[in-house]
Amino acid sequence: MSFTINRRNVLKSTLGWGGAAMLAGRTERAFGFTNPNERPRIAAVGTGSRWYQKATGRDSEYGSAPRMQQLGDYVAVCDADQYRLGLAGEIVTQWTGNSPKKVADYRAVIDDPNVDIIHISTPDHWHAKIAIEAMLAGKDVYCEKPMTLTIEEGRLMSRVCKETGRICQVGTQQRSSKEFLTAIALIQAGRLGKVTKATCSIGGAPTSPRIPATDPPKSLDWNLWQGPAADVPFRYLAGDNGETQSWSRCHYEFRWWYEYSGGKLTDWGAHHCDIATWGLGKTETGPVSIDPVMAEHPVEFRDGYPVDDSRYNTATRFLIRASFADGKQIELRHDQGNGIMFEGTEGRIFVNRGRLTGKPVEDLKSNPLPGGALEAVYRDRELTDHFLNFILACQDRQDPISDVHSHHRALSTCHLAGIAARVGRKIQWDPEAEKVVGDPLAQSFIARERRKGFEIEM
Questions:
Q1: Which SUPFAM superfamilies match (predicted)?
Q2: Cβ proximity of 411 and 176 under 8 Å
């Protein structure tokens, strides 16, 4: 990469988890990167609400771009929606004082020698193609979760990441959160005894009315937005619904269509199952059976496919149990709030964003964890926020905290849960061969056919 980082200045400036909040509103070059050549050059591919909600026309600070721009300079933005692309260009100009390259086709930025990092915030069905081709082009990658649409894509990403030596951080930022790191440290210190089960409460998915087929907005290249997915009619219905005030097959609402995502199973599941897999010590393997104890969809399914293409189709209510060879289990369920319950032979803890409870947590007052316990969990790295962890990994060429390989294993459980829900039966999984055992229909969902012209270019 063409940039260098003064680690001492960076760490002095960030002050750990509180750094981002303390520096909010600063306009000068942050974190000691006073020389433009010390700052990585970033291209944003996908400028929707996860990148920055202001680029969708909303007055909100939500998104990852404000933090990323403190650590580097956006030099290019890319989106299939010209309206969002224009807003993103204006935002970057305000941040940097320079107008970024504005393109619809991501290949124009991964082939650009003036780009060091590709920041992917597209819908899920685009993630793997862009990330793989970016790594092959010599770029490092920050990819929002979920990393992939299928298990096959995860295997490809892991292979390419190893072969190219590129750095890829997945946007499962809970791995850099103090509550979750403390939970993992408690487990690894034996404070729960032998941990046998993790229950991930991730919430249910919405339903929709019938959404009529209509012409896409003039600003949107619908063919490009669909990309690797099948070419189908654009659907849209205005109404009092969510971020976009609509039901659709497109912006934000893509999450509720199996063609582009996995519903809540890969939306919040990508976060909580990731931590559950880490806590159970299963980041290098997978379950051997996946049982859809209960799974409901808003439309009828036949042979694993929805028969109605006018409504949302991902699972709305579910209890799906993944069992490992040693008897440990991960449950994914739609109810019981939001968070993860770890159960062990000597206690249990509950953790979510902002909350960590249970007797082993209370016992920390009289029996604290040893010094350096959180750093040990954090791969012996300095405790930072998720984005700085990525930038420092790019500098020292070591895996970031949310690496491709372990996340692939965690996300595979989410994908398998979706497959079991779709076929409506328990499936057996060989975690070494990464294949479904004795169920050709379920195995057929391990990969998806990519539309001609949008294949992954290896």
A1: Glyceraldehyde-3-phosphate dehydrogenase-like, C-terminal domain, NAD(P)-binding Rossmann-fold domains
A2: no
User: DSSP secondary-structure letter at 54?
Assistant: G
The alpha carbon of residue 449 and the mean position of all alpha carbons in its chain are separated, in whole angstroms, by 22
Using a cut of 0.90, tell me whether the model's pTM lies above it: yes
Q: Which residues pair with 45 in a beta bridge?
A: 78, 120
Q: Where are the beta strands (DSSP E) in 105-173?
A: 117-120, 140-143, 168-170
41 three-class SS: strand
Place of tokens 């996946």: 290
Q: Which residue has the tokens 């005030």?
A: 245
CATH number attached to the domain at 197-339+404-443? 3.30.360
Q: Check if the beta carbon of residue 134 is closer than 8 Å to that of residue 128.
A: no
Residue in 88, 107, 187, 202 with CA at minimum distance from that of residue 146 = 202
Extents of the domains making up the chain? 7-173, 197-339+404-443
Separation between Cα atoms, residue 378 and residue 387, nearest integer Å: 14
- Overall average pLDDT of the 17-26 stretch: 34
* Non-local CB neighbours of 247 within 8 Å, separated by 6+ positions: 208, 209, 211, 235, 236, 237, 239, 241, 253, 312
Contact status, residue 266 vs residue 255, Cβ threshold 8 Å:
no
Return the CATH class of domain 7-173: alpha beta
State mean pLDDT over 69-94.
98
Query: What are residue 339's phi and psi, to 5 degrees?
Result: 150, -175
Backbone angles phi, psi at 411, to 5 degrees: -70, -30
**Residue linked to tokens 């082009």:** 137
3-state SS, residue 134: helix
Q: Residue 38: what pLDDT?
A: 78
Does an H or E element contain 237, and which? strand 236-238
Residue 56 has pLDDT above 80, yes or no: yes
340, 184 contact by CB (below 8 A): no
Per-residue pLDDT tens over the stretch 88-120: 999 999 999 999 999 999 999 999 999 999 999
Using an 8 Å Cβ cutoff, are 128 and 148 in contact?
A: yes
